[in-house]
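Supplementary Methods S3. Complex input for the glutathione-bound model.
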Amino acid sequence: MLQFYYTRVSNNARRVWVALLEKQLEFESVLMNLDGDQFQEDFLKLNPFHHIPVIVDNGFRVFESLAILDYLEAKYPDLPLLPTDAQNMATVRMVELIMINEFQPATIALLRQSIDIPVEPQQLDKSKKQIDTVLRFLSDLLIKNGPYLMGQQLTLADIVAGTAIPNLPVLGMPLDDYPTIQQWCDRLQERDSWQQTTPSSEELEQAKAKIKAIVQNR
Ligand SMILES: N[C@@H](CCC(=O)N[C@@H](CS)C(=O)NCC(=O)O)C(=O)O
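Predicted complex, serialized as structure tokens:
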């Protein structure tokens, strides 16, 4: 059976977790603590970069969350999450890469502020502007396509963006000014896959405390 290595509070792992659930695949969860267990020899054999998520499917190992999503789609095409026509496929890929390359780095300043680690005001402003650009881009897609980013069907675009953006209020950036995004987040949260994988507020607070301790001990 397919094995899925993950932790509960990780956007990188959560996007794979949601895809496994949405595709109704059978899998065995292997919970990692990331307290040193990621440096154990057996795990390093699976991922020499000591990161989750990792999947092992009949002996075939894949790490890097976006590569895992592609693998799942190609290997298990039922309940598809990736459109096949050129324009829609490119748009899904654009959303995935915007989230990784533009959104994720911008959230670092917000995270620092939310755990009382000093951050330059200019840096915070720049990050908020960058996040605003991402939210406006996604709002435009929702207004054009709705109810999901690519239309009637949930796709990897919703999964990659929709497992990260609902965390913004926890990081001190409410979604009040983005009603279309808020409604889409609410719509996603109605799905079993989101409910099963949403970290509790205690888990989020514990994760923030852990990150704070790591940053302070550097
Ligand atoms: N680019 C990777 C990033 C994976 C990643 O950074 N995972 C973090 C958890 S969110 C991790 O395993 N950290 C443990 C470590 O670096 O030792 C992906 O998309 O899968």
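The first helix runs from residue 11 to 22. The chain has a mean pLDDT of 96.
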